[in-house]
Amino acid sequence: MADSTLREASAAAEAPALPERQKCALCLLLCEKVSKRGAQLVCSSCVNVSSMLQHKLGGKVATTLEDKVTFYQKIKSKGSGRLEWKTVRALVKEHMILRRIKQSEVSVGGKYLPMNVHLAAGWTESQVRAKEDFMEDAQLGTVWRVPVMEKTVRQIDEEIDEELTTKEQEVTQSRQGKKRKLQEGEQQEPDLDLPSAAAGSKASESNKAEKKEAQEEAKAERLVLKSNKTTAALAAKVVGPLSTLVSSLNSAKGFATKFWDDLAPDLRTSFAEALATALAWKTAATSALQFQENYENAARKDPAAPVQSLPALPFTAETFSDYEKASKATVKELRSTVRAKKDEAVAAAEAAGKAKAKPKPRVNGKAKAAA
Predict the structure, then answer these.
(1) Handedness of CA 117, 119, 125, 130 (dihedral sign)
(2) Would the pTM of this model clear 0.70, i.e. be above it?
């Protein structure tokens, strides 16, 4: 028994000791690979990211201790291996977006209006009801309010992406310029409370390729966001007039029902095309607005979601303006033609009535005797 105990004690003494886990000054987590940087202990993962931020962006991305810890703990959740700049940049962007959202003020005001007013403005009934913001008015009945955010997540995303791209370009230009010797007693701004990496180190070819790829992706996203914004603005602008046109065309069609077959073929064709176009374009505009709203809701839940292009509208501002004028002219011509035919029909009916009511000539007694 004694020999067995001695062997176990000897084996335990010879076994390699487990590395001591110490707290990292950046992520505040217990880590195995910790080295001393200045007066602080920092894990290898945080050191790599900190140096990369200094090299790519020239400094800090956090404003408070809590903000810094949150960022580096997010970095650690991606694993212990060395991360590529593309991944780190995405995490920086996500971190800044969330921080900006907390700081942004959102307006949810608006007037309580009847449902038909919201429908004329381009909202669908399901969209209005989904807001669940309504009240009862003594004269108007149920009135609804549609809250609208002043700044969307995608707008914040675009702003931050531009800021990061600008900062990357500035740091790159600074590295490529002449090195400025530090004056006596001057110190470089530490990166997240750490000594900065060597400012004069040259970027490797892989880093250059990654930067170029990131810039191209950011540029492509900005173009898509700009295009989406333009498309949604046009859709919102025309959906109201299109609703009015559809109502006007349907009303004119009902007005001309009795005389439809008597109208000129080219007028009937023009009218039918105008109505079909109004319905198709209204559907396209409404779908675009719904798509944009759904996409912004999804982006609000996941700021890192990929950018999606809004479906193209079948018209431009110019073609819509031309179509609107032509459609109004068609409605005017149709109503004028039908009105003239109605007047002709009334005149013919009156003439027929007078002819029917005209008395027969009377024959006197002498005329009868002569006959």
Answers:
(1) negative
(2) no
